[in-house]
Design brief:
Blueprint (H helix, E strand, L loop, with lengths): L6 E5 L3 H12 L3 E5 L8 H9 L3 E3 L12 E4 L8 H8 L4 E3 H6 L5 E6 L4 H14 L4 E5 L5 H4 L8 E5 L15 E4 L14 H9 L10 E5 L7 H4 L4 E6 L6 E5 L3 E6 L2 E7 L8 H16 L4 H10 L8 E6 L2 E5 L6 H10 L4 E5 L12 H7 E6 L4 H8 L4 E4 L3 H11 L5 E4 L12 H13 L2
Parallel strand pairs: 1-2, 1-4, 2-3, 4-5, 6-8, 6-9, 7-8, 9-10, 10-11, 11-12, 16-20, 17-18, 17-20, 18-19
Antiparallel strand pairs: 12-13, 13-14, 15-16
Helix pairs in contact: 5-9, 5-10, 14-15
């Protein structure tokens, strides 16, 4: 993409936006970064922009943002934000940072989306490729911002790319070699006019511009009924826990199996894998589907799946104290994530639940809560909602801080139980991010 001399506005001055601005600078464009937040809320970004000689504004969007040949939007900017609507009305092309970076990348893209499991699957995919001797980058929502590596990566490289629905909202040519939808359940409805259809259609954008030379991988237990509606032109592969598939990967009750045109190859038993839980079997099957198509050495793939250390803040074991295990699942920001988390444990649970609610329907986890949870600690701005729903059939205590919550858990927990932070909510009411929330939890636990 030749952008030399072009004026390019970037809306959003955090990680992706700053990376896009620097990418512009490297290719001779004239970037202008505009962020709604005041400078003191994004000091690190401001410092990078200053040191890079990139013009910017904070605290709102002036008319200068429209003086451009192209506008690039960061994933944190709502798709219906007035600044974007105004740009479109003025005839300015608006694209996402994902689309912008894609136009520079020459390697093989493995694009991974889904409501849950994205981070684990993206990380595992990169770990497997690296174990098999491939040059691989982890980018998107985790690792590098895509714009940071897009023009620097070798042609023979791979990028394992975690993609949210927000990044897919403004694409018009994004065409990965492999696209993957792990699952789709209600989430982020506050960004999609409380419409699950809008959210789901945004996810389907991951395969919209693929051709028959590309591969689209989907979870047949979750999205099979939607495939005809998607109308993907890519070659289809699928994975399943409930059925034997012809092309892709499945679980036969004991082993993870690759299927390729009638040829069936057991890879490993679920006990051999480092990742545990039903949700992680799905994640591993998705990775195996790509590994099979790339004809990777299955012995090396198997070794990688044995050695994979997991992902921070995703069912992360913190410590055991007085026979009680403490587990950090701060990345569980919706009820579907919590549903899978609860089913992972056989031990009785003390569950820390709550935060910034995104339209949660707690009826979806009523059954596993009744089965696995002894007590709930309600935190954050949604603690009254959590209390009101669960208090009629399980003990619920409202708590003000994470530190107090951990202390109460230590007092209440019995040997053989698990204290689980799996909030089902966003973190922004009390914390900077789900990572910050998880770190505060871990610090409090390690200080016991």
């Amino acid at each position: 993409m030749n952008i030399k001399g072009k004026k390019i506005s970037i809306v959003g001055a955090v990680r992706s936006g700053v990376a896009a601005a620097k990418l512009c600078k490297r290719h001779g464009a004239i970037p202008y970064v505009s962020d709604y937040s005041p400078a003191d809320k994004i000091p690190d970004s401001v410092e990078v922009l200053k040191s890079s000689g990139i013009d910017y504004e904070t605290g709102g969007h002036s008319d200068k943002v429209y003086d451009c040949d192209l506008l690039v939007t960061s994933p944190g900017v709502p798709s219906d934000a007035p600044v974007l609507k105004n740009a479109i009305a003025k005839g300015i092309e608006v694209i996402s940072e994902l689309e912008f970076a894609f136009r520079f990348y020459k390697g093989t893209i493995i694009a991974i989306t889904g409501t849950n499991g994205k981070t684990t699957t993206t990380s595992l995919m990169a770990f497997v490729l690296e174990k098999c001797g491939k040059k691989v980058y982890t980018a998107g929502n985790i690792g590098f911002a895509f714009s940071e590596i897009a023009d620097r990566a070798e042609e023979e490289s791979f990028v394992s790319l975690e993609i949210s629905s927000f990044q897919l909202d403004f694409i018009n040519s994004f065409k990965p070699r492999y696209s993957m939808i792990l699952n789709i359940t209600p989430d982020h409805l506050d960004r999609y006019e409380n419409s699950f259809d809008n959210y789901r259609n945004s996810k389907y954008g991951i395969t919209r511009y693929q051709s028959s030379d590309d591969i689209f991988i989907y979870n047949s237990d979750d999205t099979k009924s939607e495939i005809e509606k998607i109308n993907s032109k890519a070659s289809l592969r699928t994975f399943s826990l409930n059925e034997k598939v012809a092309n892709g990967a499945y679980f036969d009750g004991e082993n993870l199996v690759i299927a390729n045109g009638g040829k069936v190859t057991p890879v490993m038993s679920k006990q051999e894998a480092s990742l545990k839980g039903e949700h992680n079997i799905y994640n591993m099957l998705a990775v195996l589907t790509v590994a099979a198509d790339l004809n990777l050495d299955l012995d090396k793939v198997k070794a990688a799946m044995r050695e994979f250390p997991g992902v921070e803040h995703r069912l992360e074991f913190v410590r055991e104290l007085d026979g009680v295990k403490y587990v950090n699942d701060s990345k569980a920001t919706n009820v579907d994530s919590v549903w899978y988390a609860l089913r992972t444990f056989d031990e009785p649970l003390l569950l820390i639940l709550g935060g910034k609610d995104k339209g949660n329907d707690y009826n979806e986890i009523k059954e596993p809560v009744e089965k696995h949870v002894r007590k709930i600690y309600a935190i954050g701005s949604s603690k009254d909602k959590v209390y009101d729903y669960f208090n009629s059939f399980i003990e619920v205590e409202k708590v003000d801080t994470m530190e107090d919550c951990v202390l109460k858990c230590k007092k209440d927990a019995k040997s053989g139980e698990v204290v689980l932070l799996s909030p089902a909510c966003a973190s922004f009411d009390m914390f900077k991010s789900y990572e910050h929330r998880g770190k505060v939890f871990k610090q409090a636990v390690n200080q016991l």
